[in-house]
Structures are given as C-alpha cells and as structure tokens.
Amino acid sequence: MKYLIIGAGGTGGCIGAYLAKAGNDVTFIARGKHLQAIRENGLTVHSARIGNFTIDNAKACTMGEYDDVPDVIFVCVKYYSLEETGAFVNRIAKEDTLVIPILNVFGTGEVMQKYSPKCTVLDGCVYIFSMIEEPGVINQPTSIFKVYFGFRDNQNRTMESLAKIVEKDLKSSEIEAYLSDNIKRDTLQKFSFVSPMGAAGLYYHGVGSDFMVPGEKQNTFISLVEEIESLGHAMGIVFEEDITTVNMEILKGLTKDSTTSMQRDVEKGGPSEFDGLVHNVVRLAEKYNVEVPTYKKISKWGKSENII
C-alpha cells in the first residue's frame, strides 16, 4: 500500500518516518532545503518516543514531481496551504484514495473535501510536539504521539475497511492510533488545546512555562478553553472528560521553552494559521450564538497587529 505524506515537517515528517521505519511504502512531499537534505542524507528523527533513527533513501519530491497514485494521503500542511494542497490531491488521487488531513484547524476535512471531491476525505488530528530542527532532521523531544481520524456524520463509509488497515499500520509503527467513531468531538477536543495555546502564546509572546503557573497568562488560556467548550456544547458535542483538566495536564507535559507553530510562523513574518485558530472561532461563535469574549479580544488584537 502506498502512503503519501504531504508536508514533511514536525507532524508529517514523524508520521511518515515512523511508517517507513516499520517497512511501509512512503513518499514525502517537501520543498526547499529540507527536501534537498532528505534526498542527500535521508530523513532523521530525534525521537524521545522510540529513539533516534534515520530513513535512508527516503522517497521525497515536490508536488510537481510526484507522478504516482497513492492509496492513502496524510495531509500535514498549514491551513493557509489547504486550497493549493486540495487541488494537488484532486489531480493525483483516485476515487478509492483515502485522504486524512492532520491539521490544527477544526473542520478541515469538510473544507478539503470541497477541493478534492472525487475521493474520500476524513477528519483527523494529532497529539505530538515536534518540529524541523534543521533541514532533513525532525526533533520530537517528548514521547506523546497520538493520531485520531474518522468519518464525519452521514459520510459515506465505503472506505472503512481501508481506514482500519491504516489504523493497524500506524499502531504497528509505534504510533498510538484511533479510528474514531466521533471524530467531530475528538478534533474539537484537540482544537480546544492547540487553539487556546496558540492564541495565548502569541498574544503574550509566551513559552510553555508561562502557562504552567497560576496568573493572568494561565487564566487567559483556561478562559479560551472554556469558550471552546461552550461552543462545542452549542454544536451538540458532548465531551467525555473535563477538557480544562485534560488540557492542563497536556500543558504540564510540554517542555518549558516550547512555543507553538503559529508563534514561530508569525515571528518569521510569514503567513500563519491565525485566521483558522482565532478568527474562525469568533465566526463559529456568531453562527451558534455563543459568547467568546477572550477570543474576540485576541481576534481584535490580531487585526490591529496585522497578523495574517
């Protein structure tokens, strides 16, 4: 079975490298110096989960160079690249290709399905802390690695048998994988951490340790989580756990100097996922008539700072 990983950064690099290490047929879509380094030296992962390893002779190319037909595609790009990626997927995929977006933004699968109408696009999310350390090298300094994916309500499930094979392959690759029967809940629960953490981290220019101790920064993070919870309830989502408690435990597991990918993107002066992680929450809150004052404050601040 052929896996295609679109985006070989912290998330896609780890998913693809773990799968390849276990003997699966994996191709990475990458670009620039990272792609060049992978071609020359393979893809190295410094993993706190399973130890350091290198995928020698890793298959990697650009979107334009890819000329195969994949069975399964993991989409691990930033939200602002979704339209370009969707058009690429629509070009290369067959009708029975399974597409699994693993992005930070809630509701990505439904959006991408519109860009790639001929194949089945699920929803998914990941719990991992990882990033490109240098071209060709991924750093995964903590052991957490959980992948959730599944079909949306009323979605055609003809590809369910393939989805179960993907779950098995991920588990065999030492990834904690779940084919979820309630992916809307699971992706919103993940979003309830990554969105508040990204928003608060950027707003305060903070690092992980800033939010681990009581005070204004931690209170802001908690308020953002609670606003996502209220939004979820308005959408008919029932969480199985207290998500504030869960997210505080996740927070404790971060390294003290950790920052979010959105912070790093903004610091570089390029596009970020601010629209999907912050402005989109305000839009959803208006749609479902939910008050989200903390999100509105940070959304307004982001506009004043010209954050894109």
Question: Explain this structure to me?
Answer:
Helix 6 packs antiparallel against helix 7. The protein has a 6-stranded parallel beta sheet. It folds into 2 domains: 2-181, Rossmann fold, CATH 3.40.50; 184-305, N-(1-d-carboxylethyl)-l-norvaline Dehydrogenase, domain 2 (Orthogonal Bundle), CATH 1.10.1040. It has helices at 10-21, 32-41, 82-92, 108-115, 160-172, 183-204, 216-234, 243-252, 261-267, 274-288, 293-304; strands at 2-6, 25-29, 43-47, 53-55, 59-61, 72-75, 98-101, 120-121, 123-128, 131-134, 137-140, 145-150, 176-179. The protein is an alpha/beta fold. One of its GO terms (biological process) is pantothenate biosynthetic process.
Looking at this protein, list some descriptive labels:
single chain; 308 residues; alpha/beta; Rossmann fold; N-(1-d-carboxylethyl)-l-norvaline Dehydrogenase, domain 2; 2 domains; six-stranded parallel β-sheet; four-stranded mixed β-sheet; 13 strands; globular; oxidoreductase; 2-dehydropantoate 2-reductase activity; pantothenate biosynthesis; KPR-Related
What's the short version?
The protein is of the alpha/beta class and 308 residues long.
Provide the succession of SSEs.
Answer: EHEHEEEEHEHEEEEEHEHHHHHH
Strand arrangement, major sheet: 5-2-1-6-7-8
What is the fourth-level CATH superfamily of the largest domain? Answer: NAD(P)-binding Rossmann-like Domain
Which architecture of the largest domain does the CATH hierarchy give at level 2? 3-Layer(aba) Sandwich
Strand count: 13
What portion of residues is helical? 40-55%
Pathway: Cofactor biosynthesis; (R)-pantothenate biosynthesis; (R)-pantoate from 3-methyl-2-oxobutanoate: step 2/2
Family: Belongs to the ketopantoate reductase family.
InterPro entries: 6-PGluconate_DH-like_C_sf, 6PGD_dom2, ApbA, KPA_reductase, KPR-Related, KPR_N, NAD(P)-bd_dom_sf
Keywords: NADP, Oxidoreductase, Pantothenate biosynthesis
